[in-house]
DNA sequence: CTGGATCATGTAACCGGTTACATCAAGAAC
DNA sequence: GTTCTTGATGTAACCGGTTACATGATCCAG
């Protein structure tokens, strides 16, 4: 026996399909006893509306699409979690789409979203926003997250990578470090490029040089960079990795080589994934509260779908979370510097933020 | 200007909608020059098919639904990653749905899947499979992952939690530990219950007692359990936590209290999330290769959708990955025991598996 | 030259909802 | 009592595809 439809209910309840539809959607112009009868019949037949049919006629799907470059690591899982939280609070569902850095795939994905979702959150740090937007289904609302800047005047969310990276490097310098290395993300990735620039800016202001090793945002590349430094016997006292995973990879490699962090070399990352608190020494990082960042993206998308989109760029300035990996002087404390972007909110040590 | 439809193309190309549909779907009975012409027109008009319309008429959506209890931590992110990988290889998209342990929500979610997805992967360790299945849209293929066993004879994937937990506890005992504590997951969660039982079985066989503290699979509850043990000054030499996050929480708390792991207390977890390799000491755990587990679930779902579903229960037996946290005798090595389920595959230290 | 097979194409129904508009009954105003 | 308004309900079009079936052209065998 196939699924019950509105026509089945209409026949069974001896009313028209229009009345069934109105009754089940809570329209006011249905007599109460008729409504109750229809609801009873619907329940008896086990009626469940067919989302695609509803979507087709009402032009609303109740779904939002999320395009991310990857799913590895805690950054994306936190981002998804925040998005899902916000979406489900509004009765929306999320579908996800990983583009794996492949622009070809990305375009196909965007096309596939037509007739599936009401709007898109697109995170594509490695391709130009304008290029992607050209392939967006016509009239599909979209929020861009950390895309290369375009002319489009689209709704955008971004992380102030330059400020965050500068603040981290300034923190390293303030704690006495002078011989700095940056492990960057892949060239062409806007987050990577901006974090590199922020680090370079801060070094330039302090009249220090900065050595740069290129990574790919994944943990093994941080480990590889550390191996190079160890083998060279490089004379350095601090490493700023462009994200936490590379920082962790580097730190583990240094520890295995007998180098003490932070006494001999300080390390900091970027993103402030939950993991930073769980390793030892805990990792200094720049925090944007990833989950809440994701939630904001969805919130703005919902506004855009409703049509009251302000269309501007919202920039999040990261907060430096000082932890053990850049001690020892400040070990376990936060930098208290009211004129800076450092955080001052207390954090329970080691418990993370799992609610 | 709204979106182009098949009728627009038909008018523009001076053919019928049927021919357009056939041409664009690669049916053979279309004259080559007609097909080319239609494709050219479609391209010129920027035609993108409307997924909901296609779904409605063809009864195929190209989407699979994933229902998970939570999104915290690396377990779910790895699971999703594996599912997404398998799905996208087959040209399918994933939509996800978090039930947050709320059966009410879960039922609503299952209903909402009707007309949205071609099939479901449902992971619901805390509710009965039969109860959930009762609310599945009629005829919707589904694969159950780690659900409480039901009579349904449904397609199921499960982890052999009892065997995994027993093997871990046997490993602890084999390395000389005798005063064991288990930090369990929440009661009523089938994974938690089975892991507890596995641990108890192994202890009973060795004629050892096992103290049990109840946690909730999240990191702070592991930390809390450790705090209790520390404050009591409990005389113990090993902790088996029911998952890695609680093990990590416990380990960090012990370390902060000056207790040396593994010398004074050995610790092991369960799940073998990527993180186990990145902390220090690295964490012994029972591995099922979460991503591949997720991929298998999707692969079986695809078979079920195609109709050649064998309908059985597929059980994965975890492999014990011995790492530093249960040393020192075996530190950094794997247990070589051909008659057991211990792994013998070499693992590059510290690089993780990020491909 | 004609009947039947083959093939490209068109017509129209259908998937399962929503909703504009028509209809009709009941109550209000005159 | 007639007309106008109001409100509940029904009819049928529509969303944008797919596809069963009808049609008509072409080609071949007899």
> Secondary-structure element order of chain A, as H and E?
HHHHEHEHEHEEHEHEHEHEEHEE
**Rg of chain A from C-alpha positions?**
25 Å
Count of extended strands of chain A: 12
**Number of DSSP helices of chain A?**
12
Q: Largest interface, with Cβ-Cβ < 8 Å?
A: A-B, 61 and 61 residues
Given the C-alpha coordinates, what overall shape of chain A results?
elongated
Strand content of chain A: 5-15%
Q: Mean pLDDT of chain A, rounded to whole units?
A: 89
Measured distance between first and last alpha carbons of chain A: 44 Å
Provide the spatial order of strands within the biggest beta sheet of chain A.
2-1-3-4-5-11
| Backbone structural class of chain A | alpha/beta
Flag low-confidence runs of chain A: 329-355
* Largest sheet descriptor of chain A: 6 strands, parallel
User: What is the quaternary state of this protein?
Assistant: homodimer
Provide the helix percentage of chain A.
Answer: 40-55%
Written description of the protein model:
The structure is a homodimer of 355-residue chains. In chain A, helix 1 (6-13) crosses helix 3, helix 5 (73-89) crosses helix 12 and helix 10 (219-232) crosses helix 11. Helix content of chain A is 41%, strand content 15%. Residues 329-355 of chain A have low confidence and may be disordered. In chain A, the strands form three sheets. A six-stranded parallel β-sheet of chain A has the order 2-1-3-4-5-11, with helices on both faces. A four-stranded parallel β-sheet of chain A has the order 7-6-8-9, sandwiched between helices. In chain A, strand 8, helix 11 (244-256) and strand 9 (266-268) form a beta-alpha-beta unit. In chain A, 52% of the residues are buried. The two termini of chain A are 44 Å apart. By secondary structure, the first copy, chain A, is of the alpha/beta class. The first copy, chain A, is built from twelve helices and twelve strands. The first copy, chain A, has helices spanning 6-13, 17-24, 32-45, 51-58, 73-89, 103-112, 129-133, 161-174, 190-205, 219-232, 244-256, 290-306; strands at 63-68, 93-98, 119-123, 142-145, 155-159, 180-184, 210-214, 238-241, 266-268, 285-287, 313-316, 319-321. At the A-B interface, helix 4, helix 5, strand 2, helix 10 and helix 11 of A face helix 4, helix 5, strand 2, helix 10 and helix 11 of B. Strand 2 (93-98) of chain A pairs antiparallel with strand 2 (93-98) of chain B.
